[in-house]
Every structure is written in structure tokens, then in C-alpha cells.
Design goal:
Order of helices and strands: HHHHHHHHHHHHHHHHHHHEHEHHEEEEE
Structural class: alpha/beta
Strand content: 5-15%
Mean pLDDT: 92
Helix content: 55-70%
Radius of gyration: 28 Å
Length: about 650
């Protein structure tokens, strides 16, 4: 029989789903309108003028003002629908203006197409070209890196008729704006509405400052704090909470489709929560037994249940969460798992072979003398003080503890020749502490207010401090992202242009190379394999690559080392016919074209090898092919500036 509590819980879930959909729609409109307006004006480059920085600050102040008005309406219980609408518009416009305005004069996203952003652009280009789940680089391999974010971006690119590299920026900003608004709705289902706005805004600001370059991870970071509160709400209850179980499982499943590392830390935290909840339940059962509590209703004889049975409920919910997450994860992981189990060579990769200095020590942002440090310190104090009395503090505290445990495990893993990439979890730690900081500030200010006999000016002063701190931190975000923004202006885009109006790099020749390659092969781009060290070409055009940029982003099923050895062997062959024969006997699909750099009598490729545990973890080396190896009629060579394109006739 359905109880009133279950009915109310069901209604609350459907209300939350409806509001989440509405918030997503509002945020999408805000992002589209904002980005279109920014692109309609010819702005100066961010790295050569302060104009866009000034306009970013103005937009941030307006966004914060909308959030403040929404909080005032919520506290006064006026126009609740308007208050929610203002909060959605405020937080989504904050994301849009904070990232969109500094990047308004470039078509590239943060970090341009440099370093890690190159392989991400290549992945988005691949899945924009086709909706099939395929590896970003290697032909005939399923993807190893989760395709969720990139697949969605590819569909956006298809709808808008944009290339993958070009849709990257508007898609990344738009989806992050949507995620921030939906996360706000989730917060409102968990805590008091005015506190929800503050927590969501603080988490979003931290995410923009420290996680936004990894756009596919940032959309998860904004959800981690409220999802942990949701998960703890499910696991610590003996009965009910199945809506929270479903929500937690769905988040973990989406995380599995988007970013494996964030899935790992979220799952690790939820498992830790399950263990703590089970232990607490067993302890409570034993305590009840010692006091004679627990007799079966209507029985004259006290029947004590074994204490371990109290652990069944939280562990059952934990397994349910895992089951939901696994089912959803299989949407993107099934092709890779089937390939791995089909008798293919055992996977080998070096994705975890990276240990920068930040990964070799524990991060303590709460000890910094800064606005960020102050907020995190307030958060730590609140977590400690309220650990025994607040479910929110317990959930966020377990999240913080799990990150430090993961970091220690990552350091320990170095003894086994690998890491757990703990340095990438700092944005998650900051998000958790920011949320805790907001709760700590509100409760601390309230305690002081009450202790001083509730003088009205004190409440106004506390609100003023909060708003000033928010604006002060918000306007530093472009400064934190200065290098990433500058790179978006100095990199040459897929049109062969630099947004700072300076001379483009050799990338400007790519368009002519692409045209020649299409003409020579007579095939679509996704039917040709190209061997090149200039893998930015593959980020702009969806040709398959014979070799990835580095082993760290290569598919573990690709035989990266063996391919590198084969390339070196080809360069040492005695003559052109020998190279033609070697290509015909390649254990993998041989290149249909080579894109080299010219170097006197040689063509060169600048390749990379993993040298972990060194930092940097990549060593670049050059493989030189004598030009005499390409004199056979099967090869056709054409020069494009510093490049030589050689196509292979078969």
C-alpha cells in the first residue's frame, strides 16, 4: 500500500524533473542568445585589449544581481515562479558571459587546439562527421575514451551545419550553462531555496575558474556536491530514498559516458558512503539491542535481529545504484568491451602515466590567503563543526575525505609504476569546499546575528560581504584563465586564421592539403588513413590517423609502441619498392597518405614516446624518411609550404 510519504516523494521527483527540464530550456535560450550577440560584434582580441574583460565584468555583475534578486524574492516568499526563473537566468548568464565574452573574438575554445585540447577537438570532429561510436584516431577501433560529451556535441554540429572544431566553443559553453542551471534545480530539491542559489553559484564559479578547460568534465563537477548530498540521503536511511538511489545511479552512469576519472572518484565516494552507512546502521542496531529495543510488535518475547542485518538496506541501495550506473555506462562502453573480449590483443596504454608536482602532494586550498582560500576555510570549519548533526556536512565531508584518500592512493600507486591522476581532482575538491563554505557562511552569520540579539544591520552587512566576495571572485576568473584564453587567440583555427589578426601558423596550409588529398584519393575523408605528426590536421579534418599524437591518448588496443617501431623500420628501408612492399604487409591498415615536414633531402615526422616517471612524461623524437624512398610511381608528392603531402596509389 502506498503511503503518504511515498506519494509526496514521487510528486517531488516529478516536480524536480519538470523544473530541471524548464531550467535547461531557459539556460539554452540564454546561452544561444548571449553567444550570438557576442559574435555579432567585431571585438578586439582579449590578449591585446581590456575591452572584453571590462564587458565580462559588467555581465557578471548583472548576473550576480539577478541571483541576489532571486534570493530576496525567495526569502520574502514573493513570486516564487519569478524567483526561480531569475535564478536560472542568472546562473546560466553567468556561465555564458564569463566564458563567452572573453572568447567572443575567436572561434576557438579555451586552450585553442593546443596540448590536450587537440585530441579533444579531434574526437569531436570524428563524432561530428558520423554518429557511429568510433575511435578518435584509429580506423576500425571502438572508442576507449567515453564518447558521451563528444557524441552530443557532434549532433549539435550536425544540426547547426558546423565542423567539429567550430562547434566546440558554443557547444561547450552552452552545455555548461545548461548543467549549471539543472544543478541549481537539484540543489533546490535538497536544501532551502535561498541557500541552494548560493551553493550552486559558488560551485559554478569554482568550476568555471578551475575546470572549464576540460569542458566535458566541468559539466560533471557542478553536479558532484549536490549528487553526494543526494546519495547520502539515500544510503543513510533505513527505509525509502529510492528516488535518490535512481538519481545517484543516473549521475554515475552519465559520468561513465562522459569522464572515466570523475566516474571513479564519484563511485569511490558513494561506495565509501555505503560502507559508512552500513557500519553506522550495524552500530545503531547493536546499541538498540543493548537497551532492549527491537521486540517484535505484538510479541511477548523480545526477538532481537542480528546486528549485521541492519547493513542490508544501505548495501542493497548501493548495489542498486551500481546496477543503474552500469546499465547506462554500457551505452558507450559496449563496443570497446566487445572488441577487447573478441580475441583482440590485450590492451596496453599509458593513460595513467603522468605525475606533475601537484599530483605528488596534498592540496590544501583552505590555507591560501585569498578569497578562494577564505571560502574553503569556512567550508572546512563548517564540515568539522556540523559533522555530527548535518546530513549535508556529512555528505560533503565524506566527499572531501574520499578525494584525499584517492590522492594518497595515487601517490602509493607510483610504486607500482602508475598513478590515479589525482591532480585532476582539485576542481572537485574546490567545488565541495565552496558548497560547504556557503553553508558555513550562512549558518555562521546567522549564529552571530542571533548571539548579538538580532541587530538588523548585521544581516544586511553579512549579505553585502557575500555579494562583494562573489563579484570580486567572479571578475578574477578571466585572470585565472588568462593562458587558456590567450592560446585561443594565438592558435590558428580551421579557417587558417588567428583571432588576434597576426600571421597564422603553418596550419593555414591545411585547407589546400585537404583539397589535394580529396582529389587524389577520390574518397570521403573518413575512408583514408594519414600518417602525420601534425595531428592538428586530423583535429580539423576527420581523416584517420595511422599513429596518435602520444601514447597517453592512444587507444589501448592500437599497439602504439609497435606502430612507432614499424614507422621507424619503414624509414630505414633501402629503396622505394621495399617501402611499397612493406606497406602492403602492414599488420594494420597502411597509410593512404603521408603528411611530412621538409628537411633537406629528408621528410620528417616529429613523434613522441612515453618516458614516465619523468616529468614531462613525453619525449619528442624525429623520424627521417629519405626522399628516395618515395620515387616509386605508387607515390605522388606535392609541397605545401613546409609540408609535403605524399599519396599512395594502390
Amino acid at each position: 500500500m502506498t503511503t503518504n510519504d511515498e506519494v509526496r516523494a514521487g510528486r517531488r521527483i516529478w516536480t524536480g524533473v519538470g523544473e530541471g527540464a524548464a531550467a535547461a530550456g531557459v539556460a539554452l535560450v540564454v546561452a544561444v542568445v548571449g553567444l550570438f550577440a557576442f559574435s555579432a560584434v567585431q571585438w578586439p582580441a582579449f590578449n591585446s585589449s581590456n575591452v572584453t574583460r571590462a564587458l565580462t565584468t559588467v555581465g557578471q555583475v548583472v548576473s550576480v544581481a539577478l541571483l541576489v534578486v532571486s534570493v530576496l524574492l525567495i526569502r520574502r516568499r514573493l513570486w516564487p515562479v519569478v524567483a526561480k526563473l531569475l535564478s536560472w537566468v542568472g546562473i546560466s548568464s553567468f556561465v555564458t558571459v564569463t566564458l563567452g565574452m572573453p572568447l567572443a573574438a575567436t572561434k576557438l575554445y579555451l586552450f585553442g587546439v593546443s596540448v590536450d585540447q587537440e585530441f579533444r577537438t579531434q574526437y569531436l570532429t570524428r563524432l561530428t562527421d558520423s554518429a557511429a561510436l568510433r575511435d578518435m584516431n584509429y580506423v576500425d577501433l571502438p572508442p576507449f575514451y567515453p564518447a558521451g560529451w563528444f557524441w552530443l556535441g557532434g549532433r549539435v554540429g550536425n544540426v547547426l551545419g558546423m565542423d567539429g572544431w567550430e562547434v566546440f566553443k558554443p557547444y561547450a559553453i552552452g552545455l555548461l550553462a545548461v548543467a549549471a542551471a539543472v544543478a541549481l534545480v537539484l540543489w533546490m530539491q535538497l536544501v532551502r531555496a535561498d541557500m541552494a542559489v548560493g551553493a550552486a553559484a559558488a560551485v559554478t564559479a569554482m568550476t568555471l575558474a578551475y575546470a572549464s578547460p576540460e569542458a566535458y568534465g566541468a559539466v560533471l563537477v557542478v553536479f558532484v556536491p549536490p549528487v553526494l548530498v543526494l546519495a547520502w540521503g539515500a544510503l543513510h536511511r533505513r527505509t525509502g530514498g529510492w528516488g535518490a538511489v535512481l538519481g545517484t545511479g543516473l549521475f554515475l552512469g552519465v559520468a561513465a559516458c562522459f569522464y572515466t576519472l570523475y566516474l571513479a572518484i564519484a563511485a569511490f565516494t558513494v561506495v565509501l558512503m555505503g560502507v559508512v552507512a552500513a557500519g553506522a546502521a550495524v552500530y545503531a542496531q547493536r546499541a538498540a539491542g543493548r537497551h532492549g529495543v527491537g521486540a517484535r510488535a505484538g510479541s511477548s518475547v523480545a526477538v532481537r535481529q542480528p546486528a549485521w542485518r541492519a547493513a542490508i538496506a544501505p548495501l542493497t541501495k548501493l548495489m542498486a545504484i551500481g546496477g543503474i550506473a552500469i546499465v547506462l555506462a554500457l551505452v558507450v562502453w559496449t563496443p570497446y568491451l566487445l572488441k577487447m573480449l573478441s580475441g583482440a590483443k590485450l590492451p596496453s596504454g599509458s593513460a595513467f602515466h603522468y605525475l606533475p608536482e601537484s599530483g605528488a602532494q596534498l592540496a590544501f586550498p583552505m590555507l591560501e590567503f585569498s578569497l578562494r582560500g577564505a571560502l574553503c576555510m569556512v567550508g572546512v570549519l563548517w564540515l568539522v563543526v556540523r559533522a555530527g548533526s548535518s546530513r549535508r556536512a556529512q555528505a560533503l565531508g565524506i566527499g572531501v575525505v574520499s578525494i584525499y584518500l584517492w590522492t594518497l592512493l595515487s601517490m602509493l600507486a607510483t610504486a607500482a609504476g602508475t598513478t590515479l591522476l589525482s591532480f585532476r581532482l582539485e576542481p572537485v575538491l574546490l567545488a565541495l569546499l565552496a558548497a560547504a563554505g556557503v553553508f558555513g557562511f550562512v549558518e555562521g552569520a546567522t549564529a552571530i546575528y542571533q548571539a548579538l540579539n538580532e541587530p538588523a544591520p548585521l544581516r544586511t552587512a553579512a549579505a553585502a560581504i557575500a555579494v562583494l566576495g562573489a563579484v570580486a571572485f567572479a571578475q578574477t576568473i578571466p585572470t585565472v584563465l588568462t593562458h587558456e584564453i590567450d592560446t585561443a587567440y594565438t592558435d590558428t583555427d580551421g579557417n587558417g586564421e588567428r583571432a588576434d589578426q597576426r600571421k597564422p601558423s603553418a596550419v593555414s596550409y591545411y585547407r589546400d592539403i585537404d583539397a589535394a588529398l580529396l582529389d587524389r584519393t577520390g574518397r570521403p575523408r573518413d575512408e583514408s588513413v594519414v600518417l602525420t605528426a601534425d595531428t592538428t590536421f586530423l583535429a580539423f579534418y576527420p581523416y584517420w590517423g595511422f599513429q596518435a599524437l602520444t601514447s597517453h591518448y592512444a587507444n589501448p588496443l592500437s599497439d602504439f609502441k609497435a606502430r612507432a617501431a614499424t614507422i621507424a623500420d619503414w624509414s630505414k628501408l633501402p629503396n622505394s619498392p621495399a617501402l611499397v612492399e612493406a606497406l602492403s604487409k602492414s599488420p594494420w591498415r597502411a597509410p593512404d597518405a603521408f603528411l611530412f615536414r621538409n628537411d633537406g633531402d629528408n621528410y620528417t615526422l616529429r613523434l613522441a614516446e612515453d618516458v614516465y616517471p619523468n616529468d614531462p612524461n613525453v619525449k619528442r623524437y624525429t623520424v627521417s624518411f629519405p626522399k628516395s624512398l618515395f620515387t616509386d610511381p605508387a607515390f605522388t608528392a606535392t609541397e605545401f609550404g613546409p609540408f609535403t603531402l605524399i599519396t599512395v596509389r594502390r
